[in-house]
Amino acid sequence: MTPWHLNSGGAYKFFSWWKAYAQVDYQFWSAFQAPALVIQQPQTTNCSGSGCTGGSLNISPGSFPAYQYVDVVVPRFGEEFYLNEITTIRLGYAYRPSILGSVSNGNGNYLDPPKHMASLGLGLNYKHFLGFEATNQIDFHLAYQYLIQQTISKTAGNEVGNAADPKIGSPGYVAGGSVYGGGVSLSLLF
Fold this sequence. Notes:
Layout: E1 5-15, E2 18-27, E3 72-82, E4 87-96, E5 115-129, E6 132-153, E7 172-188
Antiparallel strand pairs: 1-2, 2-3, 3-4, 4-5, 5-6, 6-7
């Protein structure tokens, strides 16, 4: 379930060919509870039918990691440049901090590094589509996300406290990287 959020933003037209956008989004993650499934040892003493064979199944115990989620503020900025009646160029930037209060050095391996997001777009406006008089817009966009590198150093013992066994991901790892994307859309304007 996504959290509640509040946002506010606006646009300002500097010139007939240049418009700027700004938005601030406040996301309430501190009350978030991640969905979890905890598997327990099955009960085989009170069963009936041909499926009861006695209990040779042994489930390893587990624990649900307790993460602290924090509220975040996500600022977004955009620029739109009208080159002529057909062509528009768009630029955008946003920064999203991590919703996790700390990296997962203990149980579990939840990752949510802070990230910088940038986008570039090209909009083309036409009066005709496939020979018909139908105003349309073709938009191309490229997107890039830089996930800020985090170093995770696992604490001693496994997820249920056995000091002789290591945790999943031990002794630690580095998380981060880049995400690339893009797309094209066609809009018929009525």
